[in-house]
Specification:
The protein is α+β, with helices and mostly antiparallel strands. It has 10 helices and 35 strands. 20% of the residues lie in helices and 39% in strands.
Amino acid sequence: MGNYFSSTSAQGESRQESGSDEVIPESQSSSKQTTTEPYHVFINHRGCDVKHTLASSIYYTLTSHGFRAFLDAEELPLGEPITYEIEEAIRSAALHIAIFSEKYAESRWCLDELYLMVKTGTTIIPVFYHVQPSDLRWVAQGKGIYAPAFSKHQKRYSQEKLEEWKGALKEVSNLMGYPLNSPNAHEGKLLKEIVDYCKEKMGKVREKEPNPERDQVFHSKLVSTELNEGPFSMGMFGGGGGGSWDDGIHSGIREIVVTFGSVVDSITVRYDQKGLPQWSECRGGTGAPSTNTETVKLDFPNEVLMSISGQYGQKWNHDGIKAVKCLTFHTNLRKYGPFGNHNRLIEGETEERIDFVTPSYGCKILGFYGRHGTYLDAIGVHWKPISTELNEGPFSMGLFGGGGGGCWDDGLIYSGIHQIVLTVGTCVDSITIQYDLDGLPLWSKRHGGTDSHKTEKVKFDFPNEVLMSISGQYGRKWNVDMKVVKCITFHTNLKKYGPFGNHNLLNEGKIEERIDFMTPSYGCKILAFYGKSGSYLDAIGVHLKWTTH
């Protein structure tokens, strides 16, 4: 989401640590020019903790309401001095949001931004994401979750700099904020209150600095359906080699052919153009023949490509040439991939790569663009929000998990969920759901096995409490290829339940490889579940609908 830049400081630290991971293509620079128009909101955050979850939810909620929000390097044109541009964004913003997460204090950029935010005197909304306000105050005593990070900073930065950071943390810790770290945490409420505050705050700013032309544009953005009209572009993800290409905007996507070896060599796309299939040119692959070819054929028009994710990095070790290393395609029905080299270990060393992902829900990809030559150097997407289409009926998201077990689907006849019963041990063994059918509670079948160590019950305050999202992890059951759901968490409009299952990544002293998953966390209502099960809950997916409640 945020655009990736690397600006090395005198101490050798780079902006990479904030978790940004995109580069703005030269072809898009005209839409990202430096502007003197002030930002409404500056979002200060630690990218590797919250870039693709809470921070992006705040960013897209604000932009969909017409606000100019600054998320990391989202608004920086390529080649601009980053520190200067960020400073200008902070000084111009009418509101600052600081998301304090577990690794926040490891980033000198986060701390520098916070110090400047405090100095400007502009309102700061602190969000405590799995940390406590006291953690910010305890740094001065060498205690709390941020103490280890400051111990490392002492070896690199002056005492004066450390005191600036500690003072900023202490001052913000005394402000009223949002603790998203308890069972009562409610992300949807946070998003709504931020938007409401921005409307009130910007109204006061416009009263002090009248500008009829700006006011008219600002008002029209707030009341229009501009976000639903799209399309928009996102990327590029990758290096700067090769030549530019752009497939343009189409009605949809029918099929994708990917060739790959140590990187993604090429991509060819079969689009739909108002009912007619249309193949693109082969993008990349002018070098040696590829080792592998994979074809992804979507069940068009029922299956929609909603998101892509992957990694990019150096083609060879230390040659400086970056290319797309692997790609995964996410539809409303399933996931395809990863295609390419997704193994970070090269000759016994961990290869430095940059992860990327486009919005994973409420979006429809209409075309691709990028850079290519011998390989697929970079890729970006043309997309549009489809929330208005989704409001007309339910849609599905998943499966999350492995391919074992038998398929099951509780269907789309229900109006809500009363309670959920789980059996768990080293993974999630089974799930049973009590749905609401026209006012009558009705139990589903047990999906999964019975050989469990523990039973967990989640009872919702139906109809006042609505299940909006699930999150969790899946991975191997034992040290074999069979994947199952390892743990699961349920998020309602009132609180969070879980995680249930084995959420400990350490297995016999080694970090277990797992894949995180999460369905939309705002503006959705889960109506029912589907998945695969046998002795365990092998995989799970959800039937959703967009809701204004």
